[in-house]
Amino acid sequence: MKNKIGVYICQCGSNISDYVDVVKVKDAALKVNGVHLAKTTMFACADSTQQEIANDIKEQKLDAIVIASCSPKLHLFTFRNVAIQAGLNPYNYVQVNIREQGSWAHSDNKPKATEKAIQLVLGGIARVKHSKELDMIKIHSENAVAVVGAGVAGMRAALELAEMGSVVHLIEREYFVGGRASQWNVLFTTNETGQQVVSRLYNQIITHPKVTLYTATNIVSKKGSVGDFTLTLKTKPRYINPECKLDLKKFQLAIDKCPIEVNDEFNFGITKRKAIFKNYDSEFPEIPAIDYDACNKCGECAKLCDDIDLNQQPHETTINVGAVLLSTGFNPYEPPVGEFGYGEVDNVITLQQFKRLIELSPEKLIYKGKEIKNIAYIYCVGSRQVDGDNKYCSRYCCTSVIHTAILVKNKYKGIQNFHFNRGIRTYGKQEKLYHEASEQGDIFLQSFEDAPTQVEKVGNETIVKIKDILTANEELEMSANLVVLVTGMVPRENADIVNLLKVPIGRDKFFNEIHPKLRPVETVIDGVLISGACQAPLNITESVKSALAAASKANSLISKGEIELEPTMAMVYNDKCTWCGKCSAACPYDAISIKEYNGKQIAQITEALCKGCGMCLPVCPENAIDLIGYTDKEMESMIEALIS
Amino acid sequence: MAKINPDFAKEIFKYGNTDFQACYNCGNCTAVCSLSDEHNSFPRKMVRASVLGLEKNIQSSLDPWLCYYCGECSTTCPRGANPGELMMSLRRYLTASYDWTGLSKKFYTSKISELIAIFIFSALILVLFIFYHGPMDTTLTEQGGVKLNTFAPWKTIEIGDWIMAGLLSFFLITNVFNMFLKVIIKDKTVKIPLKLYFTELWKLIFHFATQWQFRKCNTKDDKPSDVKKTLTYWIMHWLLMSSYITLFTMIVGFLWWFQTDEIHNWWHPQRLLGYYSTLGLTIGIIYFSINRIKKDIEKSKFSHYTDWTFLVLLFLTTISGILVHLFRINGMPYATYYMYVFHLMVLFPMLMIEVPFSKWSHLAYRPFSIYFNNLKIAARKEE
What we know:
The structure holds 2 protein chains of 2 kinds. Helices cover 28% and strands 25% of the residues of chain A. Chain A contains 17 helices and 34 strands. Chain B is elongated. In chain B, 68% of the residues lie in helices and 1% in strands. Chain B has helices spanning 8-13, 28-32, 44-52, 55-59, 63-66, 72-76, 83-98, 103-109, 111-132, 148-151, 154-185, 194-199, 201-210, 224-253, 255-258, 269-294, 305-329, 333-357, 362-382; one strand at 2-3. Classes of the chains: A alpha/beta, B mainly alpha.
């Protein structure tokens, strides 16, 4: 029990004192047993006041303090630091909120506001009396990171982590690295191709001693927590001898022979590929792959090429890492059949398909046997939806489509581009592209979401219609040879990772950070970081920036060898516990497991996982769990003081 | 439902070179224009119609004629799309579209056609003189002047003048009527009561005589130097216009009084009017030519070849006219006769091409557009 308590009542300028009689509150506090001093103050957070409180603690040897002011969300850590400076354990400080929950809420009734403030302060004093000195918990951390997804973001993060001295396990689900960037040709500002960017990163990664790359690999299980995760990886066979000589002619024979044809996802389904494949010549790793899920093991290819080994089996690897960095990227939005004629009108495709079509068409732009001249681009498909869930702007598509329109016009003769948009968002330097496209004669038409652009088949023609708000709402139409739906971003199919790691998902279905501005690459799961387009629609530059942020955040978290955690967490009274398992079921963080104790089974809290949320407390029938920092004793005495 | 026609831009480029396609519809041009108002909002609407190729919207619009090209829109445009020059190009385009003969379009879009036409008209004059000129009398009058009316009797020339004036009027009036059909009759949103055609008529005359709209090209925020430039431009334009009208009237209506063998005193109205007009034309031509060469005011930055054709023909006509006069009063018969033929060889094509089919047609379209516009506004008010 603390008995030299200091109580400070803040006026917050006049924010509090206009409605709450702070002197009355101070006098009420002074009457409580154990309160050594009570003061009012103009601004408790002012530097001079902080100094005064620190001096009081030192000179008068206070053993606990209560500050009645604003919400702890604002200043909990400010005043904890004051306590630390003065040599007082920060957990012997309690903040009472008499502004948001007092003066502001009850400005219409001053006497009652004062009365409530007194009760709250008495409650705070009662709680602080029972407070304990607590220390940060320190746990071991492994200086290794699992980076999930070897796209541009993942590879860049892996490289950065390795440079900073962490061991990196780079895990890619596909047979080849590069992710989406490898599917794009020329990129804006640098005029490099996506494939060149990928090659540069790959060549650095593959020669770096601290990076291990796993392709065709999924994470199948996870144990442990921040600082000490154990992950089991399952790698699909490639069916090709990894030490083989790269005789591409031989492989081509095998590819020709292969009887299996599947949709080529690299080209977004506009072409087919064989079960044995490589998407493009300079793709990495260099050796082709045989699609584990598609191959029927007929063995025809193995007859032509000795390096093919259909007896390879899937294998598992276990790795130990301190943190997991997710960079699982995005999928293009897949329009449902009928959205702007998609799947119904024969010449409607997505922007991503269109970009592949351009790369596959060297001389003339031909789709389904017809030469393309007039192209209609319909913007914001799958983004900024009025009825659907995707309320967000996908950010990259305006720039991407305008960039593509310029490329198309330069590459083929007689192309005319028509942009049916809902406002052009080529922010930053990308604005130059918009200018260039207008100057080259591209036509921009704009509509509101309540009168969307329409695509109709009239006879042999595909007619696109719009009520153009830039032409006084005049109804305009054109006949398109090709309609390109400018589809936005949605997160990749990630259910397995989400289930394993319990990554929080936002309403938009992307991974959620803790705070968009202040903690943009961390998740509420300690040790799990997010980067790139798995978090939100981002372009390559932005993805790489967030990857670098996540890499340094991961490194600073685990590289010291130990991690400090808040001591506020659940604690089991071993003697009382009878293990019914209810607490474990209630825990949202998987922090409660079972252990043997004196010949019986009891609950055990994994410190590194517990967040101190308190979900396990009310469900315990034996009252065998307490929350350190919010013990029953503290809370009960607080309640008593509040209602007294 | 209107069909978008991107090829229309290529058509417009023939009438003047601007980057109007760079427009991103911010509307600054319209906001900054001191002539655009709630009845006629321009130039953005015209830029948009040009980008989309909405030919009907343009052909039925009076906006290009209501613009007097102060150039504020072009200097303000964040995209360098030159809306002011587009309006100029559209005036050329409209001149061509009102002309039912198709000659205007030919002259505006093909340099060769215009040169050939000039050549044909010149040749016609030359041939007529070769076969039908009067005696080349070298004796002088008592005052020492050349007997010009012996070589080219005013009665004969006047017949030619009337034929020419008849042709000019016929083409110009039918083209104005075509304009009337496109902008008034085809506009189903407003019906003009007959009475208004008379009550608004004074505006046609007033603006024909004064070009008062030029004065409105200034805004109250303009620098004094800009205000002065606009004022100078208006004065120069008026000088040129009044000189031309004076000469045209004397030639077509009063040739018996204007083309005399008698040498009047210098203060005689015949000579004073002649001097005023030729001086007015000369100063005007020099002023506009220097503007077009220096390109330091917005409206003179871009010159279509038809602009130069007009200035050159007008210059040659003026100079040769002055020379005919000087040769005549100084008793130089051959010089007078040859210069007279040359004078008509440039005057005739200039009037035949420029007045009904090219730049000079704006002497009708400008005031008529204000007249038509006021008819519409008044009719809407009455409704």
